[in-house]
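Researcher: Quick test of sequence recovery. Tokens follow.
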């Protein structure tokens, strides 16, 4: 791939500005603005004064790890952009689905019709086996509200229904003995995703319950299904499908499939999916490690594929105790080597990390055909 010559020429002054300017505050603001624009993500302003979610703390106890929590919160916000424009709406933490409502949904179904998780059918008396045969699928319901900037009123709501791909069991018997285990929810060989199927079924009930609740504003609802990854996975789960329910409506007319998946680098899964890209990243990684042996850099990445195509590359270069001179050299080296992993349409973000702290960043803007690199 050929990079415009102007992009590489433009790279050097940024290093100079970041390293030598006396007006650091101005430059920092400009750099942050450029980073924001280059990532092409619309970001919501938070309605002030900020309010905490009325079900605060519930998500931590119900979802299986922080990676999935982070992904569902950020992912729902990013997906909502297409329905509630950040130019017109503030975002606010959920103010209507409290712990009582959510816990009632998460309970197993009863004869009275409460609960949305599967009831225990034909109990064997073995509590562990009963749980394995009837896994809990619904794990959480995340709410986000959208406030009209002009009227100050809520005019939109987004929901993410979180679903277990794997059910982590912890159950006690009548004697107080605790049993643990794990079972895959969709454990048959057919072509139907039982997790998504169940999610669509409970979504109908959730929308009806919301519309019947007089304390919840009758506003448009964007709703999506999120399938959690396994608790020990280092990549998050995936959004499976979404839908939009107009104001006053309680019926879901249509679902749209979402095909977005994340892959770590290095990994066998990425190699099997996209060997060419994997080999390009491997060469890039080896070049950095060969030329900066004294830093002993560790390099990992996350690649997102949408509808089967590479859509985003994020790389972390961990270089403990790197000094300022070494950082400038590393950023310059990465900037000149970046063409080995560039694609015309794929943004690239490379973070330089020193003991969990970001100290430098390199960005490739596929629209402007420019590389941006600077210490932070």
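Model:
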């Amino acid at each position: 791939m050929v990079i415009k010559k102007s992009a590489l020429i433009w790279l050097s002054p940024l290093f100079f500005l970041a390293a030598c300017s006396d007006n650091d505050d101005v430059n920092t603001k400009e750099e942050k603005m450029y980073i924001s624009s280059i990532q092409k993500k619309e970001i919501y302003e938070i309605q002030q004064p900020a309010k905490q979610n009325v079900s605060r703390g519930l998500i931590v106890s119900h979802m299986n790890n922080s990676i999935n929590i982070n992904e569902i919160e950020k992912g729902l916000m990013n997906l909502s952009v297409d329905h509630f424009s950040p130019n017109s709406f503030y975002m606010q933490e959920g103010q209507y689905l409290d712990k009582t409502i959510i816990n009632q949904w998460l309970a197993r179904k009863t004869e009275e019709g409460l609960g949305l998780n599967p009831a225990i059918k034909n109990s064997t008396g073995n509590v562990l086996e009963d749980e394995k045969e009837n896994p809990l699928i619904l794990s959480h319901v995340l709410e986000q509200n959208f406030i009209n900037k002009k009227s100050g009123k809520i005019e939109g709501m987004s929901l993410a229904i979180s679903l277990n791909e794997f059910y982590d069991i912890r159950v006690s018997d009548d004697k107080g003995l605790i049993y643990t285990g794990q079972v895959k929810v969709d454990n048959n060989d057919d072509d139907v995703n039982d997790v998504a199927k169940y999610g669509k079924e409970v979504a109908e009930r959730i929308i009806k319950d919301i519309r019947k609740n007089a304390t919840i504003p009758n506003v448009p609802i964007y709703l999506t299904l999120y399938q959690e990854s396994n608790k020990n996975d280092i990549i998050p789960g995936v959004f499976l499908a979404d839908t939009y329910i107009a104001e006053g409506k309680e019926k879901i007319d249509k679902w749209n499939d979402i095909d977005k998946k994340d892959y770590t680098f290095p990994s066998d899964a990425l190699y099997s999916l996209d060997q060419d890209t994997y080999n390009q990243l491997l060469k890039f990684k080896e070049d950095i490690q060969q030329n900066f042996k004294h830093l002993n850099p560790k390099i990992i990445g996350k690649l997102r594929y949408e509808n089967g195509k590479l859509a985003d590359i994020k790389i972390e270069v961990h270089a403990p105790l790197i000094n300022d001179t070494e950082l400038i050299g590393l950023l310059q080296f990465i900037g000149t080597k970046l063409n080995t992993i560039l694609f015309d349409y794929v943004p690239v973000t490379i973070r330089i990390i020193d003991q969990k702290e970001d100290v430098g960043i390199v960005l490739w803007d596929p629209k402007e055909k420019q590389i941006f690199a600077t210490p932070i």
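The domain at 5-40+263-375 is CATH 3.10.570.10 (sex pheromone staph- cam373 precursor fold).
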